[in-house]
Amino acid sequence: MKSYHYSVSALALALFTFSGSTVAGALISSTNNALTQFRVVSASQASVTVNARKDLAAGSVPNQFKVGDWNGSVTAGTLAVRVNRTLNAVNPDYNSKGSGVSTDTSVVNSKNQLKFQLMVERTIPQQVIGDWIVFEQGTTSMISTITTTSAQVLAAGRYPIGVELAAWAF
């Protein structure tokens, strides 16, 4: 069996020479550039309150009967609102992202429901993006009502309505 012995300096010289020869070359095309602009938005805080109507009595109510109010604001960006889908299911009878169904929580397995919608009282252009109702760019506050989506009979009980609000950046 043959034994090979190399000195460390000879091996280093060989590697240096080898690596130097693989880097040699020249550009063979023109350069290409890519550019993008990064949007930096300020942090925003969102605030929302929901208030139930205090004089709401059990019984028949008409379509678009006021059951409460919602009020929201953001410190920067644009206001976006949606119904909390964990708390309120989609209203199958009303095709609107701002509508929902609230089920009576005062009785276990209750079938009593309140079908509602978030209203916008003033004329502000809006668009639906996913589940969000996003208002016209620059809209930072909104005070509006919550109404029924149809004539219905309300049974006595507790009907939670969840509204989520966030700041949107375009």
User: Strand order of the main beta sheet, please?
Assistant: 1-3-9-6-5
Global outline: elongated
Please report the first level of CATH classification, the CATH class. Mainly Beta
Distance between the termini: 75 Å
* Radius of gyration (Å): 32 Å
Low-confidence stretches: 3-21
Order of SSEs: HEEEEEEEEEEE
Q: Write out the CATH superfamily name.
A: Dr adhesin
Counting DSSP H or I runs of 4 or more residues, the number of helices is 1
Per CATH, what is the topology?
Immunoglobulin-like
What does this structure look like?
- The protein has 170 residues and is mostly beta strands.
- It has one domain: Immunoglobulin-like.
- It is 9% helix and 36% strand.
- The chain has one helix and eleven strands; from the N terminus they run αβββββββββββ.
- It has a five-stranded antiparallel β-sheet with strand order 1-3-9-6-5, with no helix packed on it. Strands 7-8-4-11 form a four-stranded antiparallel β-sheet, with no helix packed on it. Strands 2-10 form a two-stranded antiparallel ribbon.
- The longest helix has 16 residues, at 8-23.
- It is elongated.
- The model is unreliable at 3-21 (pLDDT under 50).
